[in-house]
Amino acid sequence: MKVSDCANCGGSDLYRSVGTTPAKGWFGPDLLPHLEWGQFRVVVCKDCGLTRFFASTVDRQALSTGAWERNVEGAGPLGINRP
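RESULT FIELD:
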């Protein structure tokens, strides 16, 4: 898994989780709804603390199954079209 430098501070001292983290929150929302596997690898910047979640390969492959839609250029937040 290749991860670019931190988008927040440009730092390169990044750490990733050894295992996966479930996306189906016990105390929060399901962050990858409609995907059976629902797993993340977590990457944290040691310099500023920015945390990024990367969906598993299995979940990324399942995105085109119909429960998700491709992001359309020009669409507003949550896919709401701008007037």
